[in-house]
Amino acid sequence: MPINHRILIFLLTFTLILAACSTAAPGSQTPTPAVTAAPTATFTPQPTPTTPPPMAVLLAPEGSDPALVAALQEKLPELAAQDGMQFETRSALSAAEIGPNLRIVVAVAPDTGFSQLAAGAPGTQFLALGIPGIQPASNLSVVGSADGQPDQMGFIAGYLAAVITDDWRGGMISTDDPAGQLAAQGFRNGLVFFCGLCRPAYPPFYEYPILASPPGQAAADSLISQGVQTVYLAPGAGDPALLEYLAQANLNLIGSAPPAETLKDHWVATIQTDLLAGLEQLWPDLVNGQGGGNLPTPIVITDRNETLFSTGRQRLVDDTLADLQAGYIGTGVIQP
Fold first, then answer.
1. Is the domain of 160 the same as that of 260?
2. Does residue 14 surpass a pLDDT of 60?
3. Closest-CA residue to 242 (of 215, 211, 212, 272)
4. Do 111 and 168 belong together in one domain?
5. CB 254, CB 233: distance < 8 Å
6. Same structural domain for residues 238 and 185?
7. For the segment 254-282, what is each residue's pLDDT rounded down to a tens digit?
8. How many CA atoms lie within 13 A of 11 on its CB side?
9. How many angstroms separate the Cα of 289 from the Cα of each of 3, 96, 124, 180, 284?
10. Do 108 and 157 fall into the same domain?
11. Within a domain: 256
12. Average pLDDT value for the chain
């Protein structure tokens, strides 16, 4: 081989060796450039609007009957809780305060424009308890006036007096106002409804029942002198002194309010209205959005003395009361 070629080969080989020596040694790592992550967007959830809980409200304006309000404040929370509602009492309520969560409004007398309030809130059910002059509407139900039906209360009192009294010797003390006069007519008709001619078999021979007014000792003495054995005291006619006077004369008493402990031996029963019974009867309809109910004030008989008013006679009187309130029996009283 010519020398020039040998020199050329040598130079090429030397160049290749230098190039190989300049590369990285096996096993060595070339640093990797750091990679910066792209920023991630942060999602902030929006707060979910809170739905107000369903509500039931008792509207008890100034001047409401404290005893009735107290009874409703005990009963309404129980009814509301059963149907998942909260409860509160208001002395006033405006149309602007009635939202979709206000399901039921129960109001008692005096009337402060309850019908107009109901008319402006068709999505809410309203119930008037014992408010005179209120008429039912599509979302407004009514349970009769606070004084109930005095003629019906008098009628069932007269019927009860005839059922339990020997020789039908029943009497009544009433007030002189229109309600007292209706009660007196009802009492007479109720007693006669049971006994017919009501003629006593032994003296003194009077035509029963004996009616007396106004309330007082003179009225009591009139009943005592004419042989009355059982007396009904209409609402407003039975003050404690008069009741004690009659009991001391050994007369049995039918009243319109629970008796004092000292009267228990002479107390036959209490006849009174019960607005809460009407509330309980209509409550399921109100919860289901059904308005327009119209109930007379329920009449109930409580404080029964089984010694004077036996179980069998109670069933007879209860059946008559049910028929009376259902309209199957009339009181025979002409309303003014």
1. yes
2. no
3. 215
4. no
5. yes
6. yes
7. 998 889 999 999 999 999 888 998 999 99
8. 6
9. 119, 21, 8, 38, 9
10. no
11. yes
12. 87
DSSP H helices, the chain, are 3-21, 66-82, 114-119, 150-164, 178-195, 217-225, 240-248, 275-287, 311-326
Which residue bears the tokens 């002059």?
A: 133
Round to whole Å and give the CA distance between 271 and 233.
10
Domain assignment of residue 255, given as a range: 150-272+306-326
Tokens of 111: 């009337």
How high is the pLDDT of residue 257?
A: 86
What is residue 130's three-state secondary structure?
A: strand
Looking at residue 208, its amino acid is Y
Whether residue 139 is found in the same domain as residue 191: no
Q: How far apart are CA 108 and CA 112, in angstroms?
A: 10
Cβ pair 131, 145 in contact under 8 A: yes
Whether residue 65 contacts residue 91, with contact meaning beta carbons closer than 8 Å, is answered with no
Terminal Cα distance for the chain, rounded = 154
> Are 141 and 261 members of one domain?
no
Q: Does one domain contain both 161 and 139?
A: no
